[in-house]
Amino acid sequence: MENLTSAISVQVDTHDKEVANGILKNLGLNMSTFVNMAMKQLINKDGIPFEVSNPRPIKELIESLDEGEQILQELKSGKRKGYTNMNDLIDSLNKE
């Protein structure tokens, strides 16, 4: 039996395509080979061959962002001292 091929045309973000091509090149692959590999895995798994989910920030990230926001508010209100360069920070530490 003859092995026929078909072309697929898709629209992708230009930056994403450039980044993906760079990664594939480092792996010794090209986009066509990757798409064929992904297609074979889709068929073999009878579904998407990787987890698809809505990204949710982890608890620690949310807590860190909240802490950063609190620090910014304290800096703006004068409750916390901030420094614009290392020399000022070092001078302040030496005075303590």
Descriptive terms for the model:
2 domains; about 0% strand; mainly alpha; about 100 residues; 4 helices
Report the count of strand segments.
0
What is the general shape? elongated
Mean pLDDT: 93
Order of helices and strands: HHHH
Low-confidence stretches: none
User: Main beta sheet: strand number and arrangement?
Assistant: none
Structural class: mainly alpha
Helix content: 55-70%
Question: Separation of termini?
Answer: 84 Å
Report Rg: 26 Å
What does this structure look like?
The mean pLDDT is 93. It is elongated and about 85 Å long. Helix content is 59%, strand content 0%. The chain has 96 residues and is an all-alpha fold. The longest helix is centred in the last third of the chain and has 19 residues, at 59-77. The protein has four helices and no strands. It has helices at residues 14-26, 31-45, 59-77, 86-95.
Topology, please?
Blueprint lengths: L13 H13 L4 H15 L13 H19 L8 H10 L1
Concise synopsis of the structure shown:
The chain has 96 residues and is mostly helical. The chain has helices spanning 14-26, 31-45, 59-77, 86-95.
